[in-house]
Amino acid sequence: MSHSKITILLIDDEPTFTIHKGVVDLSYGCSENEEIAIHENFNLIWLKNINEIKAYFDGVKDLKNVGSRVINALGILPEIIVFDYCLTRGTTSQMDRLKDPTNPNIPLYAELKKLRRGYKRLSEVLKESPPKNVNRSGSDRYGLVSGALLFTFFSII
Asked: Is 150 domain-assigned?
């Protein structure tokens, strides 16, 4: 019996999972049977900061015009969105996000480059500043705003 994995989008600046040989390890504290069930049934994609979130939102919005089959085949649309309220505290991760297997922007922007000549490179997009009006209060609510925005966006796709 073949089935699709449930994709979980994690928006967090300092998550506590690890990656072994290019595979996300979500099984902290699990038994061997639970670990197998997790890997068979769940796929984790992770966005670390407001720049990655904006790149993801813009890319999915642009790819949506091509058709849902392309988006679905990439495995980048979440069934579950989990977000950290605040995204500016994480400074410990030194991981190169342009090679991270949990970064949904990598396959997304690769597909956009194939379909549209001259489409921006992911490395260029991640350097862009987010709009100032996203966080007008001065307090860090990027995770909250981003999670709510993506939830609303995916509910109407």
From this structure: yes
pLDDT in tens, 80-95: 888 877 777 655 555 6
Sign of CA dihedral 68, 74, 80, 86: negative
Specify if 1 maps to a domain: no
Nearest CA-CA partner of 19 in 101, 107, 106: 101
Are 9 and 78 in contact by the 8 Å Cβ rule? The answer is: yes
The answer to pTM > 0.90 is: no
Find the domain containing 148 and state its range: 6-156
| Size (the chain), residues | 157
What are phi and psi for residue 3, nearest 5 degrees?
-145, 160
